Amino acid sequence: AGEGPRIHLDKFIGKDAPVAPTGVRLTRSGEENGIKLSWGAPASGQHKGYVNRDELNYTIVRYPDQVTVSEHQKERTFTETINTTALANYYYVVTAYNGDIEGLSAESNRLMFGTAIEPPYYEDFEDQSAGASMFTIIDSNKDGNTWQYGFWNGTLNADLYYTMNEDRTTPGDDWGITSPIHLKANRFFELTFYVNNDRWFGGNEVISAWLGTDKTVEAMTTEVVPVTTVTNGDPAPLSGIIKSDRDGTYYVGFHCE
Length: 257
Fold this sequence. Notes:
By secondary structure, the chain is mainly β. It is 2% helix and 47% strand.
């Protein structure tokens, strides 16, 4: 007698947005400056709904120039030639679609192309294999302690970092020098980089930044950021102004004193 208890069930039914493509991989092709991009099809819908594999298609965006190089293609491979002299770590973001329903995206690894960095330029250091290749590391005093690249002391972001000699008395005297940078004549450029002192071993760290025409210590002749003692635990910016007298290739060197 009377109405019994009610129960309800929520479930996604119908055409679903796909999850991200799998295994997005960027490699060099046989052609000069050629690339090949490949990936696997999404395994399911984001809400466990219906994904028609025959309707799957993909849009591809190239970074760091953020150019859409292909829209709604069916094939799971893409090739092109990087026709640029701007030195950068290139990578691709592939977005899956179920018909016209946009799904999730996946990012490829990075490959370096070009001959010189063209400002404005930003390096986030997040791809370990690519970021490390952008710098020439010089252990000037050959004490075995120098700049390294990676995730220092469990941090979440990759960095270029320096660990001082454990005796705390041997000077650093180590350089991290950028890849070539193309600067136009009679221009001013602002250099900004973020530094912090992890204080793992205690004590302060000292850094300066220089400009030169080659990736050697001897070529680092123009001071951009003077010798600065770093005591802050959180990353903070240091900045300096570069004036280029001629159109040409330059290098920025970061010196740990």
